[in-house]
Amino acid sequence: MTSDNSRTLALIGARLRTNTDAHADATALLIEGGRISCIGSDAEVTERAAAMGVSVRDVAGAVITPGLFDSHTHPHWAADVTAGIDLGGLGTVEEIRSAIAAEHARLPEGAWVRGWNLEYEPFEETGMRGDLLESAAPGRPVALICYDLHTGLGTAPALAAAGITGPVEFADASEVVVDADGTPTGELREPSAYGMLFDAAPKPSHDEERDALRDMFRTLAAVGLTGGAIMDGKPATLDLLEELESRGELDHRLTVHHWHAVGATDDDVAAVIAAKDRRGDLWQSGAIKLFSDGVVDTGTAWLHEADACGDGRDGFWPDWNRYVEVVRAYHDAGMLIATHAVGDYAVNRVLEVYEQLPGRDGQPFHSIEHLEVLSAQDIERLRGFQSAQVGGAQVTASMQPLHMQWRAADHSDNWTVRLGEDRNTAGYRVRDVMNTGVRVTLGSDWPVAQFDPRLGMAWARGRHTPGDASAPVFEPDQCLTGEEALLAYTLWPAQARGHEDRGVLAVGAVGDLTVWAADPIDTGADQLPELEITLTVVDGRVVHAA
What parts of the chain have a pLDDT lower than 50? Predict the structure, then answer.
């Protein structure tokens, strides 16, 4: 726990973006005990700080906004996944082999080669096969995971260590891909399948895992993030957060969504509900994450019409009625529900379920995560849902426009090829969703994409690679304004979770701040990723200073 004195901070010489109609001319603020106690002129805050014996920090014209919140992130998972080699941008199998060989030469005997951020395109002609990589690390297990966290790839030594010898039946749509003779190729689709592989790999010690998560939050703070929604929570996540907070080492404000597995029993659901009120000063549980489909790239997104490879017509649940049951159980328990839905048909089916939920006055809104592909009928259904506020359970759209970075100007990327050119323009329709009246929040899905919110906002505003004048602009009519992008990282996530004291600079609000060298709204989208974060403040404590 931290003392009130360590949670006191006085900042002057600033410009404030408050996300309210008040304090338009304010230049300073004071935080006491982790909450904003005064907003006003430099003289007012300096006088109050002096009376308290608190030193004043002059930010010399910097812009203060409410703290940035990533609405979809996996920091605990990322701390583990990113311990391996980063394979992002490697465009051929030979480049991947070279990276593996270099890591193999570096590692001691008995260690696994781990890699993340693997792309699908190098395997378009051969299919994803572990035997293409084995000779780069002779005899050593190699376990890789694709950038979207929906496919793993293992070599024969790794598969053997995991006991993967043939097809495996899962409760969900996960799959161990096999050859015609039943031999695993090494491709493992969706978490239940590749989880077998990574569960067999050597594990860090408890202290190593805890410290890696602590350091991950500090890394996130360096780009201005003060909090996020963890979308892969488990009891061990809560244990680590509780321990970090008790040690005074938690630098993030968090909502933890428990990951619901398709095969979870009624007893499992009851156990999650029983633990829903577990919380600390900076973190809370009481939220759930479910899946309705997978991703476009592997043909597991649930679409109205099949993709170019004939895939996309199957949901994640063998029995959709079971999804309906568990959503109702979590809803009735007062939990916040987030459902992964990438494909247009998945979005439609999830909305159909949400529409049937009874009202919960004063409760936060449920969300749909990603909404990557949307047909015209889905947009209209969102509009109708919002207009009617059916069942009193308004929906939030949690989206990640920066995932467009893998699209190619010539439409050769796997995502576009699968959807077809007649449908790829229906991707990432953030503006259309916002125009329905549905609240939009933005996030990264880290480690799927970069965690930097400046990059996330730049993609939402410009819909092209920031700073690259030759980069294609994807669906320019879907661009957000600078103000909308900032609101989607500050005020709107707070509103979506029912937090009136977050996402704003106001007396009584939590002391979570992001301090920018210049105004992030006035700064152009191409320049935004390079705009310096001078301070990040969580609960009145400076957790990053440039």
Answer: 1, 390-391
